[in-house]
From TrEMBL:
Catalytic activity entry: a peptidoglycan chain = a peptidoglycan chain with N-acetyl-1,6-anhydromuramyl-[peptide] at the reducing end + a peptidoglycan chain with N-acetylglucosamine at the non-reducing end
Gene Ontology CC, one term: plasma membrane
Function: Functions as a peptidoglycan terminase that cleaves nascent peptidoglycan strands endolytically to terminate their elongation.
Key words of the record: Cell membrane, Cell wall biogenesis/degradation, Lyase, Membrane, Transmembrane, Transmembrane helix
Site residues (Important for catalytic activity), renumbered to this chain: E263
PANTHER family according to UniProt: ENDOLYTIC MUREIN TRANSGLYCOSYLASE (PTHR30518:SF2)
Organism per entry: Neobacillus massiliamazoniensis
UniProt GO BP: cell wall organization; peptidoglycan biosynthetic process
Record family assignment: Belongs to the transglycosylase MltG family.
Localization: Cell membrane
Protein name listed in UniProt: Endolytic murein transglycosylase
GO MF, one annotated term: lytic endotransglycosylase activity
Transmembrane segments: 31-54
């Protein structure tokens, strides 16, 4: 009997241990289940609350309001600045929700001007008005700055529009105090790169080519410049992610895009031109692009002569490798896109034919053969 009791005690103890583990496991499962339910409930609560919050923010700020307010949307305004302005003027509830709505619906093309808006309008109606340009008054005048213009040409167009001399406008555009004031307003666009002593004109390439409407008959040079800088900042903002991935500064991007803009013709594939420039840079070859020679000389000529290639200038891409110190003109979005998304080729040369089409070559021998065919040696 004693022997049997000794054999049974360990078994009984083991059963008790198993029973304790079972109860502990059951308790743990209950705790885990409780936590899981609590977490899921919290997620649903937050999600539901977020949905209701967004839904509320899309509705009118005050559906019963009889008030209308004059809201000015400046030319070149970003979605962020418009959203902030609408909140500031008491038209919408939440700037972030407005921005998310615009992005989700892929809205855009908002028009500048003075609008009559009311807190009784929902976000969809406000967006519709901003797109169709239902403004209080018509523009006083419009000015067009084409792609490929240099700062001196832009200054001439500005001067004509606001009845000043070319020299007056150009003096303002190059005034150090004015440049620094613009840098303070647009720090992400205008960096210290534009202050490089080798840069001919600090704002060269930064004033976006477009048609602008102005609502006062005689705006200042600063007002016109700010509109153009804002437009450049808005356009480049669409490419920030790609630009940063390619490790390009804004200055480098605008410099490259200006070269592409100057070399391109109506029949040119800008992405192929970009591929040639990048291939040459990767090989340590000079870019040898004629528009930089003319920019260095401050001239406009139909043909660059061999004697012109001797001009002493940091912009002379026959004498110096890499990009020139800065842009040599403004550039449109097509050229900006090409500078960021060049084709992958093994071309190192290109040649514009008299009809405007461009021939691309892989070797110097090929290039010289094509040159002999189409370009006069005189």
């Amino acid at each position: 009997m004693a022997a049997d009791d000794k054999n049974q005690n360990p078994n009984k103890k083991a059963q008790q241990n198993l029973l304790e583990h079972y109860h502990e496991a059951k308790l743990v499962r209950k705790i885990v289940m409780g936590i899981t339910i609590a977490v899921l409930s919290l997620i649903l609560l937050i999600g539901g609350g977020g949905y209701l919050y967004i839904k509320s923010a899309l509705k009118p700020l005050n559906a019963n309001s009889k008030i209308t307010k004059k809201v000015n949307i400046p030319i070149g305004s970003s979605v962020t600045s418009i959203a902030d302005k609408l909140v500031e003027d008491g038209i919408i509830k939440n700037a972030k929700v407005f921005k998310y709505y615009v992005k989700l619906k892929n809205e855009g093309g908002f028009m500048a001007g003075d609008y009559e808006l009311s807190p009784s309008m929902d976000v969809a109606e406000i967006v519709s008005r901003l797109k169709t340009g239902k403004v209080l008054k018509q523009a006083s005048f419009k000015v067009t700055f084409p792609e490929g213009q240099q700062l001196t040409e832009i200054a001439h167009v500005m001067a004509k529009a606001i009845h000043k001399s070319d020299n007056e406008v150009l003096t303002t555009l190059n005034d150090p105090a004015f440049i620094h004031s613009m840098m303070a307003k647009y720090p992400n666009l205008l960096t210290k790169d534009i202050l490089n002593p080798s840069v001919k004109y600090p704002l060269e390439g930064y004033l976006y080519p477009a048609t602008y409407s102005f609502y006062t008959p005689n705006p200042s040079v600063q007002e016109m410049v700010e509109v153009m800088l804002q437009k450049t900042q808005n356009v480049l903002g669409n490419y920030d992610e790609v630009r940063k991935k390619k490790n390009l500064t804004v200055h480098q991007l605008l410099t490259m895009s200006s070269l592409i803009e100057q070399e391109a013709t109506a029949k040119a594939d800008r992405k192929l031109i970009a591929s040639v420039f990048y291939n040459r840079i990767d090989k340590g070859m000079p870019l040898q692009t004629d528009p930089t020679i003319l920019y260095a000389q401050g001239k406009h000529k139909d043909k660059v002569l061999y004697s012109d290639l001797e001009v002493s200038s940091p912009y002379n891409t026959y004498q110096h490798t890499g990009l020139p110190p800065g842009p040599i003109s403004n550039s449109g979005e097509i050229s900006i896109d090409a500078a960021l998304n060049p084709d992958k080729t093994d071309y190192y040369y290109f040649l514009a034919k008299p009809d405007g089409s461009i021939i691309f070559s892989k070797t110097l021998d090929e290039h010289n053969r094509e040159k002999a065919k189409y370009i006069s040696s005189k």
